[in-house]
Amino acid sequence: MSEQHSNHETDDYTFLREKIKERPINKRKVFKQSLLTITLAVTFALVACFIFFFFEKGALDGFKNEQDVQKIHLNLQETTEEILPEDMIIKEEVPEEVEQPVYDPEEETAMIAEAIAAYEPDIDDYQGIYSKMRTLANETNKSLVSVIGIQDKTNWLNNSYENKTRTSGIIIEDNGTDLFILTNAKIIGDANEIVVSFFTTQECTATVKSVDENSNLAILTIPLENIPDTTKSAIKYATWGNSKFTCKTGDLIIAIGDPLGYGSSIGYGVITSTGSEINSWDQNFSLITTDIYGSSDADGVLINKSGKIVGIINQEYNRSEYKNLVSAIGITELSGLVEDLCNDVTRPHMGVCVTNVPTVARNYYNVPMGAYITDIKMDSPAMDSGIHKGDVITAINDAVISSVLDYEAEILTYKPGDNIVVTIMRPSGDTYLDMDIKVTLSE
Questions:
Q1: 385 pLDDT exceeds 70?
Q2: What whole-number distance in Å separates Cα of residue 235 and Cα of residue 396?
Q3: Confidence class of residue 57 from pLDDT cuts 50, 70 and 90?
Q4: Number of C-alpha atoms within 13 angstroms, CB side, residue 427?
Q5: Element (H, E) at 328
């Protein structure tokens, strides 16, 4: 029985001693799988070569196009006539002996008086002067556009509608691929779409390239290929005057764009002042005031008697009693900023408003010469570094700062993220303390 039991147990576990044979290899299947793998590899290689060739060509074309893109530059005309050293040399010339007529001042005065008395001006002469100014304004209007900001809104009945706001824009230049337009940034923020309307009534969709919050200016671009040839040939690029040297109190001035509160309006007048200074963050501008009565929300440009743009209308800085008199920021101080906005140049930011130290303050109160800080922007690099209102900037790194112009020129030599050492004089009782403060510039 014991033997039977042993045999029975042996039979029960016999399967544990069975030999498992390997499955025979299916050569046909292996061949098919290998062929499929090779085919996929060749296909992948061909696709990769095609994609590489396609994108490499596109990258090279893009690089070539980038090289062809021109930088935007504002050419300020009518600069001051500088006397060169060679012009100061008096060249002695031997005059030819010519018989000079006898000058009789009384006779000349009588002739002038007779000519004036013989001429009788009438209303047509007065109208003729205005006609010439209107012709000048119409020609410059070819350089202006109407910028329309379209915003999708819903009323209290849940009905959708489009809200449109308008402002003026200036056709600056093109860089070979895009048309650049300078405009007021007030309508940009909430707009879902921006449309530019040319004087030919042609409309094109524009995109925002850059915005400067300090000056409230924006640059728009339109691809040249989206503008019809008829419009391209009709429009004009703006010509710029030099507001610093050519704008004088009493000069004739013309306001175009939207000076009266509605599009394509025009106003004539004279310049009443040019000496007011606008203190902005890290840069100052000059304010041109006129006797042209317009809208408190006016925009557009001021042009001189040559049709050149000398100012961009901005009513923000008007005193309350003169809120309807058209004023503008001089283009000379804005030109560098506009060029940087067009050419993707990011300006460094320290966050101070500065002004020149008056002679009286230097002589009687011993205020050091430099850029006097009148205000500091909240959370700016200047505030974070411990610079105070009332400090006088006398140097940045090794550059001496004696005026606002020195400060503006020096700060623009740096880039956002640069570390600089600002030397200040801080009032302490009856004297000033010399301090060096490290500042990291921001955008």
A1: yes
A2: 45
A3: very low
A4: 13
A5: strand 325-330
- DSSP for 48-65? HHHHHHHHHHHHHHHHHH
Q: State the Cα–Cα distance between residues 76 and 242, nearest whole angstrom.
A: 5
3-state secondary structure of 187: helix
For residue 279, give the nearest of 389, 395, 404, 381 by alpha carbon.
404
The answer to whether residues 387 and 419 touch, using CB atoms and an 8 Å cutoff, is no
Please tell me whether residue 80 adopts helix, strand or coil conformation.
coil
* Rounded CA separation 258/142 (Å): 14
- In 238-389, which residue ranges form alpha helices assigned H by DSSP? 243-246, 331-342, 359-365, 381-385
List domains and CATH numbers for the chain: 142-234 (2.40.10.10), 243-342 (2.40.10.10), 352-440 (2.30.42.10)
Q: State which amino acid sits at residue 354.
A: V
For residue 81, the model assigns a pLDDT of 43
Q: Which residue type is seen at 88? A: M
Vertex 215: Cα angle to 323 and 220 (nearest 5): 115
